[in-house]
Write a structure and sequence with these properties.
The complex is a heterodimer of chains A (about 550) and B (about 280).
Chain A (H helix, E strand, L loop, with lengths): L24 H19 L6 H14 L1 H4 L38 H10 L14 H13 L2 H6 L15 H13 L3 H4 L38 H10 L10 H5 L5 H13 L12 E6 L21 E4 L1 E2 L14 E8 L3 E9 L10 H11 L14 E7 L20 E7 L3 E7 L6 E2 L6 E7 L2 E9 L15 E8 L11 E2 L3 E5 L9 H24 L13
Parallel strand pairs in A: 1-4, 1-14
Antiparallel strand pairs in A: 2-4, 3-13, 4-5, 5-11, 6-7, 6-12, 7-8, 8-9, 10-11, 12-13, 12-14
Helix pairs in contact in A: 2-5, 4-5, 7-11, 9-11
Chain B lengths: L2 H10 L1 H19 L3 H4 L9 H20 L2 H16 L4 H23 L9 E3 L7 E4 L2 E4 L13 H15 L1 H4 L31 H10 L24 H15 L19 E3 L4
Antiparallel strand pairs in B: 1-4, 2-3
The chains are: A alpha+beta (about 550), B mainly alpha (about 280).
């Protein structure tokens, strides 16, 4: 599955707005030179290969202009629904480069971005364009800014090959992470929840997230240790993520320590994207002498298999959510034959309602809901909903995946950070109403940018409360709202239908049938050999054991 | 006896020839068939195991008919089996074959009776037959007669540009900038958004069919299309008829496909009717 392009966000982040360190010198000098360069650039017409540029322009108008705009200013019709916004090519400010901060990208840098896209943003890769098309397109993009002509081809930095990592490197990297104050934006556990995270804005004054380092498949410039290390040396221009070249030059860290940091950052996440295709949560049956885990932090969860379900913005019904904060949930479940405990965990940098994140909420709403749709200004809680049908479906038909319909309602386990846990039913998006006398229990914790909610309920249901039978696949879906990302009502992250199945206690009866079959085969084989020997002319009556 | 001769003798022997044909048939059915649809630009899928079993049974029966049709051939066919069962020197082989047969049947039985935790199988028709007529904001539209009015009216380039804009504003998150169903929200939805660049989709569909799908979306699918799962919105009430038609112009222009002709019954029939196993793509 191509799981690397997800919701547009997760720009890198640093201290650009935090004030502690200010801008790197390379960046500042570039900015101050800009007016001068602009005038010089306008005075001289472009001399690039006109044919290439023309071909590139045709491709651009066909495939790129809807986001990046007819004039390349990043203001196409789709742009206002994207965060971060599409690149403005007239500014020639490129985020992913192999050149020093404040410099132009090389032709290869632009071509790489076209080929692979920018993971974690709405920019896809374009491997369907061949090399010469990509080259033409690059020529056209460069022609949109006078800087390329004026400044000439930039020099790539020289990059060392990675030294190898190891336990010591990780420990050293952990210290460098604190020393360089990475945690101010990226948070102590790397989930993009640092104290400066809610203040971050990019070059257009749009809100930009500190990258969630535990989800490297969303890293704009790639997730290998080499690529992470390169971002340290080049910075992510246009975002608050500064280059660490200054720290290196000033002797705050040495070159080896920067590699340690890269290994440490990579170690914050699993090696690969969560595997796709696991669409059934297997709810483990605990032993009779064990107890169900009491809360989200119980050690017992460590041994339980985790399932990842990706989520997307609710864009079917209005008002729509084009840039949800939550992009997936981890789900684990156990049961003891009479009760189920389901743990749902997801990354959310704010423990809403959090006053420190109100400025973020205002900016996101201003950036995304500028089309006049109403947006919330008050403080909102974080919310989660686990959705089931009201009964196990006969056949394959299920309620409509978006909170059901009047004919087929859904049953919900809801939680919100203000009111806790309750049971509800719904007959469509935005219609959820609580059931009387909730039989659902649970607990929630927020720690270092991650919510974890445990729901507990008896397996036996009643009325619209579905009964969960062992061995029966029960449809399940998930919803999440980040209050401080201005998400409420229909503005939510949603998932498709998946399934939960409770493990059946396996008795010895599963071995009876195989044993009987084995004995039968043995008896038949012996009988065949006997009768063949006795009759010599009789031969085999079947091809069993023929060795074919 | 030299190597090639020995091979020729083996292949000529009815028993070993039968075994060889069975192996080759299995390989062709299991691994060969999935390579055929791409030759015609249609998406491929693995052959279901029930179909493999059916084909293999047919092949086996045909081989048995052939082998037993001739007395001498039948005797030769049975010879290796007889040798295995009675030859005194081959006692070790007899035991080995018997133990292997016991192990295999035992394991197969076990995998059948042990509890499994898979999703229930659910087939889904990707392009189900459309209704004869639909209501669009109170207006009755007969799909079999419905034509794209923009093809006859005004400047096609303008319609294309308007369609491109609407596509970018509304469709990109799921169907993607490349129109290949790989938008940045795509992996959250099951079934996955339709790949509009596949030869099995747009070129097999009439414009009226595409209009119906856009106007009525997932909720408007018949049960065989699993409407409860589809994340395709119904665009009626959001986009006007003209806007939907301009998106359709854009889709065909951008992918370079031509719509299936709506002459005769074409418009009222399902384009291509395929089914796909439900599961994350």
């Amino acid at each position: 599955m191509r799981g690397t392009r997800r919701v547009a966000r997760h720009r890198g982040a640093g201290r650009w707005n935090a004030g502690a360190h200010g801008n790197g010198p390379g960046w500042t000098s570039f900015l101050s030179l800009m007016p001068l360069l602009l005038i010089a650039g306008l005075a001289l017409p472009s001399a690039a290969d006109a044919q290439d540029v023309e071909n590139g322009q045709r491709l651009y108008e066909r495939w790129c202009a809807e986001c990046h705009g007819a004039e390349g200013e990043g203001d196409g019709p789709a742009a206002s629904r994207m965060l971060p916004r599409p690149r403005d090519f007239t500014e020639a400010r490129y985020q992913i480069r192999t050149t020093a901060s404040g410099n132009l990208p090389t032709t290869g840098d632009i071509m790489r971005a076209i080929e692979h896209g920018l993971p974690g943003t709405t920019m896809p890769g374009w491997p369907n364009l061949n090399r010469s098309q990509q080259r033409d397109l690059t020529a056209y993009l460069k022609s949109l800014s006078p800087f390329f002509e004026r400044l000439g081809p930039p020099d790539s930095l020289s990059f060392e090959s990675p030294p190898g990592g190891g336990e010591e490197a990780l420990e050293s990297g952990r210290q460098v992470y604190t020393k360089l104050e990475c945690d101010r934006c990226h948070g102590s556990a790397g989930r993009g929840d640092g104290p400066s995270a809610p203040t971050l804005t990019d070059w257009r004054d749009q809100p930009v997230r500190a990258a969630d380092l535990t989800q490297p498949w969303l890293f704009n410039g790639g997730s290998s240790v080499e690529e992470i290390h390169r971002r340290f040396l080049t910075g992510l221009d246009g975002t608050p993520m500064p280059t660490q070249a200054d720290a290196l030059n000033a002797g705050v860290v040495d070159s080896a320590q920067l590699w340690d940091l890269a290994y440490y950052v990579r170690s914050l996440a699993p090696e690969r994207v969560p595997p796709p295709g696991r669409n059934v949560v297997r709810v483990e049956r605990i032993a009779d002498d064990e107890e169900l885990p009491a809360g989200p932090g119980a050690d017992a969860w460590d041994d339980v298999d985790r399932y990842w379900f990706p989520m997307a913005g609710q864009v079917l019904e209005r008002p729509r959510q084009f840039e949800p904060m939550v992009d997936g949930v981890w789900v684990e479940g156990v049961h003891d034959g009479s009760e189920i405990a389901l743990r749902v965990s997801w990354n959310d940098p704010s423990q809403s309602p959090d006053s420190a994140w109100m400025q973020w909420q205002r900016r996101v709403a201003g950036a995304l809901y500028a089309d006049g749709t109403p947006w919330p200004t008050d403080s909102l809680p974080d919310r989660l909903a686990v959705q089931f049908p009201t009964e196990i479906p006969e056949g394959r038909e299920r309620p409509y995946f978006l909170m059901g319909s009047a004919q087929k309602p859904v049953y919900l386990w809801r939680w919100n950070s203000r009111d806790g846990i309750r049971e509800s039913t719904a007959t469509g998006l935005g219609t959820a109403g609580p059931l009387p006398e909730s039989r659902l229990q649970g607990q929630a914790t927020w720690s270092a940018g991650q919510w974890s909610v445990v729901f507990r309920r008896s397996l036996e249901g009643e009325g619209q409360r579905i009964s969960l039978e062992s061995g029966v696949a029960v449809p399940v879906a998930f919803y999440a709202w980040d209050g401080n990302n201005a998400e409420t009502g229909k503005r939510a992250a949603v998932s498709s239908w998946y399934f939960v199945v409770l493990e059946v206690p396996t008795g010895n009866e599963v071995y009876v049938a195989p044993a009987a079959v084995v004995l039968l085969v043995a008896g038949f084989g012996v009988f065949m050999v006997r009768s063949a020997r006795q009759g010599e002319t009789g031969g085999g009556a079947g091809d069993d054991g023929s060795g074919a | 006896m030299s190597g090639p001769e020995r091979v020729r003798e083996w292949v000529g022997h009815p028993f070993w020839a039968t075994a060889l044909v069975l192996v080759l048939a299995y390989a062709a059915i299991r691994f060969g068939i999935p390579h055929v649809p791409p030759l015609f630009g249609v998406a491929s899928a693995p052959v279901p195991s029930s179909v493999v079993l059916q084909y293999m049974l047919s092949v086996f029966l045909a081989l048995m008919l052939y082998v037993s049709a001739n007395e001498e051939r039948w005797e030769r066919f049975r010879e290796p089996i007889r040798v295995l069962l009675v030859e005194p020197d081959l006692g070790w082989l007899r035991v080995a074959v018997l133990v292997a047969a016991m192990a295999i049947t035992g394991w197969l039985t076990y995998t059948n009776v042990r509890p499994s935790y898979g999703a229930p199988a659910a087939l889904r028709s990707i392009h189900p037959a459309p209704p004869d007529q639909i209501q669009f904001e109170g207006e009755t539209l007969r799909l079999s007669r419905l034509q794209n009015p923009l093809r006859e009216e005004g400047d096609l380039q303008e319609h294309y540009e308007r369609g491109a804009e609407i596509y970018a504003e509304n469709c990109v998150p799921c169907h993607g900038d490349r129109l290949d169903g790989q938008g940045h929200f795509a992996n959250a939805f099951n079934p996955a958004p339709l790949d509009l660049t596949s030869g099995g989709n747009l070129p097999q569909l009439s414009e009226s069919f595409v209009f119906w799908r856009i106007a009525k979306g997932g909720p408007g699918l018949p049960p065989e299309g699993t409407p409860w799962n589809s994340a395709m919105p119904a665009w009626e009430g959001v986009l006007s008829q003209r806007e939907i038609w301009s998106v359709i112009v854009y889709l065909y222009e951008q992918t370079g496909f031509t719509p299936r002709s709506t002459e005769g019954h074409g418009g009222g029939e399902a384009g291509s009717s395929g089914s796909a196993a439900e599961g994350t793509s």
